[in-house]
Fold these 4 entries.
Entry 1:
Amino acid sequence: MNPYLEILIRAVGAFVGVIFLTRMVGKSQVGGLTITDWVNGIVVGSIAAGLVTGIGRPASYYAFGLLLFLIFTVTAQWAGLKYRPLHKILSDEPTVVVHNGKILEKNMRRMRYTMDDLTSQLRQRSAFNIADVEFAIAEPNGALSVLLKSQAAPLAPRDINIPTRYRGVPSELVVDGVIIEQNLKQNKLDGDWLLGELQKQGVQSLQEVFYASLDSDGKLYIDKKRDDLDYVQDITDKPPGKMPS
């Protein structure tokens, strides 16, 4: 068989097979990518690795395989725009996993989507109580879109016509006991000012500070390496152990 024809057959089989496997694995494994992107990440990476390490075969074989996957990807994207059913096969569809505070177990089982997946992604959307969730939708790229119930949604200042001030991104001033000199200069401050502010909050040495930042209102946030906490909430199901310091 002609080697290029063999590569073509292998590439078609790999492209279709990896898409099938990805659909079988479920959305939680896609990790923020569409199925086509994930396929390309896996297969193109493997081909590129073969191009580097496959000394026994001509480099042109691997280059031809990469070209084929580029053509497959562009063709699949074009076909998905033209034919909606094909787009749904390649990219999947959104799936409702929480409706009016109720978990839809059938939809979760169909996606191989676990409670750990759900609660983890809800926490990332600042939804710590499932009862407060109106809708949670697993998107085709593996992300979770969350709509809180109106009673639980935070009240925005515009809802009650309250004017607000500008709020910028805080500047990191100390990271793991090391001063970020450039950020101090950008805020027209110096090390003496920082050390003085740290002392006001009972910090005697930079080595005590894990992280410190300055917000746009001029307030200094400090986190010490040693946290003086009597109790740390454990959200795992492990047996009680030593409290982290």
Entry 2:
Amino acid sequence: MSKTEKQKMLAGEYYNAGDAEIQADQASAREWMERYNLTAGLANDQRQDMLRERFGAVGEGAFIRPPFHCDYGYNVKIGRGALMNFGCVILDVVEVEIGDMTQIGPGVQILTADHPRDPALRAQGLEFGRPIRIGKNVWIGGGALIMPGVTVGDDALIGAGAVVTRDVPPGVTVAGNPARALKHRGDERR
């Protein structure tokens, strides 16, 4: 039996984003975002209830300040006490995991969506995704970009505006474009 385009998408394989089922999922996510982005006056527990409607998992005390944007939402897992500030974007064509107590600054983009390097495949409208995993107690500065397939280890720091194209080991501070290691946390001499 052949896979549906959505099954291919979720598996990280080439898929056609114009597929009717995928388009319906995106329309549903847009409707949810319209409602969520009007919740500035709601208590956090009410906002958490809305996140649980859409996300794959939501830890206790997780907090996302609107406006917030995503492709689907159901591929996002956000840990206990995690915070995403204003204007964040998650392109979640495959799984995005955000660990407990992670803090994400305003305007951060977490991008699992990718495109073929072969122009003939791109011309066919094919896309694919690579999962992103962000560990526990990570701090991501405002405007950073986390690119497809990246893993950020526990206790890492990502500088504001960094473009993270490679994995970040636990406890390491990175900054720049492309992001490069600056020093290990606790080693202020480097």
Entry 3:
Amino acid sequence: MTVLTDHFADLADGPVNGFVEFWRPDVGPDTDGIGSTTSDRVVVPVVDGDLTSPDLDPGPARVMLRFGGWSPPRDIVIPDSDDPVQLTPLFTQFEVQPPAVVSQAWLAAAAAGVARDLAVAAGASVAASAAAAAASASAAAASAAEAVDVVAAGLPNATTSAKGGVKISGDLGGTWDAVTVPGLAAKAAAVHSHALADIVGLVAALDARQTTAARGVANGYAPLDASGLIPSTHLPSYVDDVLEYASLASLPASGATGQIYVALDTGRIYRWSGSAYVEISPSPGSTDAVPEGSTNRYYTDARAQAANASALAAKATDTAVVHLAGTETITGAKTFSVPPTVPAPSASGHAARKQDVDVKVGSDGSVVTLVKVTQAAYDALGAGRPSSTWYGIVG
């Protein structure tokens, strides 16, 4: 399957719009095996000069271009390619492509060819019209025969005309019914008229149209201005609901509800209240100029603190609590439910840990005192030495 692409432009290098038609004179099976073939006729639009065809089966094909008129058909062979292929170079397979500089003339020649074809078709139409005229003449001859019969029947003042009709001169001279003279039933003798409905096809054609008197009036049709648009005066107000005027003074004496009026000299906008123009307030630019409502109220520190007062009442003052870090002095008696953990004492006044106390207590649990003395001083104490004192002999 292959996609054909190309770009078409005029002599000024401007893109053109049109159509390109592809068809297969002999549609055969797919080249890639069993399956469906592309349509034997595909018309692809050219938009802004660009052409991109759908997937086409490779093989012989015929192409026609239409840019104002159909060009003569060209035979090409669509290659089998996975990548898009440019169309116009394929034309050189069977014919010489005109140079780019005369492409406009080439298009004109193609248009002339189309005009020739149209002229041939018009000739055929003329021939058909001639045949219809012959049939009409035959019908007229038959009508003439009927007219002669009418005259022969004794219609007063009636003769046959050169075209086969009945020529009446003077008064009909009486009253005639449909049996004697078809179509003249209930007609006055001195007057011959036809109802509008008697003219075949004319009433239906006229009923399908409106007169120019119905333009721009109720139950008629809307007119168009010089730009081909419907004037705003013939549109509902919601279609053109913003109207601009030079100033407030130039606004209509009576406005319309649902419309907005702009005074260009001040930039102010108004609406019609039914009796006067009321200015629509612009944005004040700051909430300071907008009054506070009863439900959505403005924020203040006092309102925020009042809203949190009950929650804050159960909280301790920061200066009345012990913090996890920092130097602080705690007063008053404190009772601990579990033993506190303290670091090893290194100075007077530090809390002693259990292991610090154990080295000062005897095996029986009694507290002992360690005294350093010389041997002579120890001997001098004799038996009166207290048992709660431990002596260390030095020197």
Entry 4:
Amino acid sequence: MQLCVLLHPRSLARGKGQFCWGLFVLLILGNFWFLGVLYLLWLYLDWGTPCAGGRRSQWVRNWTVWNYFREYFPIQLIKTSDLDPKHNYLLGFHPHGVLVAGAFGNFCTGSNFKNLFPGLTPYLHIMPIWFGCPFFREYVMSAGMVSASKESVSYVLNNAGGGHASVIVIGGAEESLNAHPGSLTLNILKRKGFIKMALKHGAHLVPVFSFGENELYKQVANPRGSWLRTVQEKLQKIMGFALPLFHARGIFQYSFGLIPFRQPIHTVVGSPILVKRNPNPTNEEVEQLHALYLQELRKLFEEHKGKYGIPEHKTLIFE
């Protein structure tokens, strides 16, 4: 069961990205160079697909291994309100954590989301950089992931008949540097692009909080201002993704390794914030909706924290 965790795209990305590039180079330089050329042609023709709804595969999303993945922690999706499939929704996922296990397990595998929210199709938006990686891009798209670019979010939310749900990890890669056990710090105060997208397309906003997401790994201490945090932030600006230094358990021992700890993850989907379509929102309108979203996110957290082991005195910290 521990081995199935390594199939998680976030885990794969740390090593398999290089593997995929190495495989591609070997194809180009080896006896099967023509396969590499054909794939380059495919890549050219298919380049825009991650921004146009992707190419999900129900066969991949329903692999039996994902049942073991969800049961390992375990991962559970909790519904607090109905979502009318006649509308489109933008789900803000918090916190990022190191693995983003709750987002992947609930929105990219199995039928839990479909059963709880019939008529809605979830699209998990991830960094565009991963769709430039040969072969790996096909894998993540098959699970229902699409680019986090504005073009991609617009494509999903512009569905005239409704029934689409964009899932965006609001804190982004930067927030993973705060992913320490017990941490409740969210990078959100300056992140207002998702608010503009919701207004532009009239997509209802839904806060989502994933309890237990930060408990999966222990991270090397990196407080703001430390040399490690400074280096990590500079590398993130250069490469586009963060490099948290983390560890957890091994396959056959519990003292050290990269397998995440077995900690329950409860992903709670809040009530929708109704949004009226406004193609050209003013800064004041964006600020007002952003403030309302923060209020509803905090309310969601406070209402459910006691159920999932968060002490009463602890609260969310917005940065």
